[in-house]
Amino acid sequence: MDKMTVRDIEVGGKRVLVRVDFNVPLNEETRVITDDTRIRATLPTIRYLIDRGAKVILCSHLGRPGGKAIDKLRLSIVAKHLSQILGQPVAVTTDCIGPEVDKTIEKMRGGDVLLLENVRFHPGEEKNDASFAQALAQLADIYVNDAFGAIHRTHASIVGITNYLPAVAGLLVERESKVLEGVLANPTHPFAGLLGGAKVSDKICMLENIMDRVDSLLIGGGMAATFLKAKSYETGLSLIEADRLDTAVGLMEKATRNGVRLLLPVDVIVANEISAEANVKTVAIENIPSDWRIVDIGPQTIKHFSKELEECQKVFWNGPMGIYEIPQFAEGTKNMARLLASLDATTIIGGGSTAEIVTGMGLADAMSFVSTGGGASLRLLSGETLPGLEALPNKKEAKSD
Ligand code: 3PG
Ligand code: MG
């Protein structure tokens, strides 16, 4: 990452607007934060700014309110939590721009922290609207992007705002991009990609892109069914992407050409329906019943995958191995999480559901790195550019002031 960071700019006494991704999972009924990883991940940047006497103005989205204020997507609950883990008051406003915000900021002193209301309450945010971006920019002297989880969005508080303020990356954005770029740039070998999740179509670009770097690719989850079908196995009622069968064949051929070992499940858990009450059984992939569907990898596959991963120096994991939301279909995913946690290798976990699983099992600290960005990490590993990162000036381009 060659972007200017918060370390490259004088922040003392300045009003610093920090875009963070506090889009945290909340319990539907109680509205309690169920995973605060994204909040904790921004503490280094926030503390860095507090320690240097900056006025720290945080802004974030929460959920998808669609351009209007929705009470249950207010950020006050996050401010309260942040205040607890930060050990100092965090003020909140009921909007992210306007006279109330101006007044609150006027009263701030160096080291104070304020969290503005959900930026997606304004339609201009997701439209990357110039006047909304300007209204946000007017609140501050410096802009810091530390919202790695949202850095793939071309939104006003991510992209547009960089036109109106000196803009730099925060410490989380710096770390995430370094680690994830490093996955591709200088892999230690043997290097394996463990990939799951529902659809091949979501992961094609990443599969294509990491194919040149890995020694083995292990494929589980819903997308394994499309690969099995492409190899002419009966896949029963499993969801198949019929228009991706050729892609799967192409990827398997490319693996052979590149000398990449591509491992598919050798046995699977099948269920007669997708529910906690379903009947389930373990079958070899040759014996998948035509009226059942694949819901997880089987015990032989777990062994087979484990053996491969145990030989690795580096593993990147993205996507669950089965329908892990239903406990009896979660064993494959849980086994892989425990195995990775036990490896003496560099283990990098893509964001989104994979990160939530690992964190939920209390294994995050046992991994080398857990990304806070689902879509963002997927795009980065697909070789695509991230608009929020693109919008920040490179170190060498930066004006000296
Ligand atoms: C996320 O959780 O994926 C990020 O916060 C981005 O949110 P979005 O997918 O609603 O843009
Ligand atoms: Mg998302």
Quick structural summary:
This protein is α/β, with parallel strands linked by helices and 401 residues long. The protein has helices at 37-40, 43-51, 76-86, 99-106, 123-126, 130-137, 171-185, 200-210, 222-230, 245-258, 299-310, 331-342, 353-360, 374-381, 387-390, and strands spanning 15-19, 55-59, 90-92, 113-115, 142-145, 167-169, 191-195, 216-219, 261-263, 267-271, 280-284, 293-297, 314-318, 346-349, 369-370. The protein is built from 15 helices and 15 strands.
Provide a descriptive summary of the structure in words.
With 401 residues, the chain is an alpha/beta fold. The protein contains 15 helices and 15 strands. The protein has helices at 37-40, 43-51, 76-86, 99-106, 123-126, 130-137, 171-185, 200-210, 222-230, 245-258, 299-310, 331-342, 353-360, 374-381, 387-390, and strands spanning 15-19, 55-59, 90-92, 113-115, 142-145, 167-169, 191-195, 216-219, 261-263, 267-271, 280-284, 293-297, 314-318, 346-349, 369-370. The strands form three sheets. The chain has a six-stranded parallel beta sheet. The chain has a six-stranded parallel beta sheet with strand order 9-8-7-13-14-15, with helices on both faces. Strands 11-10-12 form a three-stranded antiparallel beta sheet. α4 (99-106) links the parallel β3 (90-92) and β4. It is elongated. The two termini are 22 Å apart. Magnesium ion (MG) is lined by residues 374-375. Magnesium ion binds next to α14.
